[in-house]
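Posting this for the archive.
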Amino acid sequence: MLFKQSLGQTNVTSLVERVSRFTVLLKNANRRTKPVMTKIVKAVRDLPVAGRRSITFDRGTEFVSWPHLQAQLGTQTWFCDPSSPWQKGTVENTNRRLRRWLPRQRDVAAMTELELKQLCDQLNKTPRLSSAGLTQRSPGAIKTDSRGAL
């Protein structure tokens, strides 16, 4: 998620598991590939294998070192076609929900990691209905449930 340039280069990367809708939010100082990918690896490494089978990226320059991700985690990576946000609809929907708390004019650089984690926890506690017609359980509940996707 990008914010007004006048507020600096700080941005937020959102990762969403497709079945459970479990969300991870990462604050980045800029869009340089190495720090962004390092944070993604660190965040995804702790998830169960079922929760990190694949990641679909947009065409941002911060994702050019995707082979690093594949090599370290064994995670398949996919890229959306240019100007095709519907190819990662779950992330786009999640970003739209996040804009309630993170509008474009918000200074994310001033936001603490704890505040971002609390926002992520709030999102994961909110029940969400999937297009597959699954129950309307929260992503956090599905993650902790042994029968769930994660």
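Residues 5-144 form a domain with the Nucleotidyltransferase; domain 5 fold (CATH 3.30.420.10). Residues 33-45 form the longest helix (13 residues).
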